[in-house]
Amino acid sequence: MNFSNLLIKWYLQNKRDLPWRNTTDPYPIWLSEIMLQQTRVAQGMPYFMSFTAAFPTVFDLAKANEEHVLKLWQGLGYYSRARNLHKTAQYVASDLGGSFPDNYADLLKLKGIGEYTAAAIASFSYNEAVPVVDGNVFRVLSRYFDIDTDIAQASAKKEFAALAFELMPKDNPATFNQAIMEFGALQCVPKSPNCGICVFNESCAALQKNKVNQLPVKTKKLKVRSRYFNYLVVADENDNTIIQKRTDKGIWHNLYEFPLIETEKEEDFDCVSEAIQADYFKDNTVVSMLEYNEKSILHKLSHQHLHIKFWKVKIEGTIENGIDVETLRTFPFPIVIHNFIEKDL
């Protein structure tokens, strides 16, 4: 079909030289696909290079401890991806002898691998004719064919996958899948695409109907919750501090943080000071307390907006389980805390 031929021709002329494209080995392909969920290539590339340097094979990743994995992942966000990545590596290494399943159906059974990732690995590693459907694919197909299906609906993926499968050259699924994703990432971008230089500008239905900026249709809106975090950055007479591990399910599971007071709204010095005296450091006298940041740092997650303040708390004596700043820097933290440590401690 003309669409596929034009698309693949464009891809071969414009594709980026990315390390996971120069191999059919499922391990780096899997790593890249997990890392690039919710993450731009430019942001994900340094992490991919660090991971493959630290863990050249699935056996190396399987043998690593979780804190090392989380530390290397620090800043990529959506940390459940890293935990699932580690568990899947352990399963592949121990139960499958280091070999990934060679088909879509079995890849789908692995922890942390959904339909899109399974399709990507199956086509790129094993040339299985199974279409990938991600945000790029929704956008390209909805615009080219003027499809106004709401992509937030569960049925949309099936509809777009069927269309992509129909368009896909069955003898070259890997290149087609790479091409349509790359086209969405580089040319058919979400906002203000340059349609004047597009290879499809004579056949794209959305362009002819002046609907490019209306497609794809997505009506579902995320409910965003605001939370207010007050982090207590303690310093004892040896300048040691304390941290804790987030073990509850939810954001930042198994990452580290300073002692936390979560409040219903942004609170002032008096409120936080009172809470510290009531609930913390009963064995140590608080000598002084001050704000590192007068204005809260706004840290946006997909479903939550965190309003974060760091409070410097100086105490008398020494604190139990205290650590120095150099040791502190070896732990995996959420990026907002890591940045604070690097800048202010």
From TrEMBL:
Cofactor annotation: [4Fe-4S] cluster
Cofactor note: Binds 1 [4Fe-4S] cluster.
Residues in HhH-GPD domain copies: 35-186
Catalysed reactions, as listed in the record: Hydrolyzes free adenine bases from 7,8-dihydro-8-oxoguanine:adenine mismatched double-stranded DNA, leaving an apurinic site
Pfam families associated with the record: HHH, HhH-GPD, NUDIX_4
Keyword terms of this UniProt record: 4Fe-4S, DNA damage, DNA repair, Glycosidase, Hydrolase, Iron, Iron-sulfur, Metal-binding
EC assignment: 3.2.2.31
Superkingdom in the source lineage: Bacteria
Main EC class the enzyme belongs to: hydrolase
GO MF annotations in UniProt: 4 iron, 4 sulfur cluster binding; 8-oxo-7,8-dihydroguanine DNA N-glycosylase activity; adenine/guanine mispair binding; metal ion binding; oxidized purine DNA binding; purine-specific mismatch base pair DNA N-glycosylase activity
SUPFAM superfamilies: DNA-glycosylase, Nudix
Entry function: Adenine glycosylase active on G-A mispairs. MutY also corrects error-prone DNA synthesis past GO lesions which are due to the oxidatively damaged form of guanine: 7,8-dihydro-8-oxoguanine (8-oxo-dGTP).
Record family assignment: Belongs to the Nth/MutY family.
Protein name, UniProt field: Adenine DNA glycosylase
Organism: Flavobacterium bomense
GN (gene name): mutY
